[in-house]
Specification:
Layout lengths: L1 H21 L6 H21 L5 H24 L5 H20 L2
Helix pairs in contact: 1-2, 1-3, 3-4
Main location: membrane
Membrane topology: Multi-pass membrane protein
Protein name: Guanidinium exporter
Amino acid sequence: MSWFYLLVAGALEVVWAFSMKQSHGFTRLTPSIITLVTMIGSFWLLAVAMRTIPLGTAYTIWTGIGAIGAFLVGIMVFAEPVNAMRITAAILIVSGLVLMKLSSA
């Protein structure tokens, strides 16, 4: 169950990053509230997952999910650039996440 909590925590990290961008520096109320609520949920689920998942593994996977998720949202929603170097960087992040998970088995 801890891995499920960690995955949801990572997904919430993507939501709060997106909402933070939409808040325009916390000047818009609804995205600001979504940011704060999803931040709290993400941190709480990360803390719950860390009861059984090692700190380094949990934190690495949580931030990796957030980084890759934000990268994909940036491309799909904000039309951020897609080029070979950015794709390679994303592949390296995912590779690191897979290795971290495998090393924790």
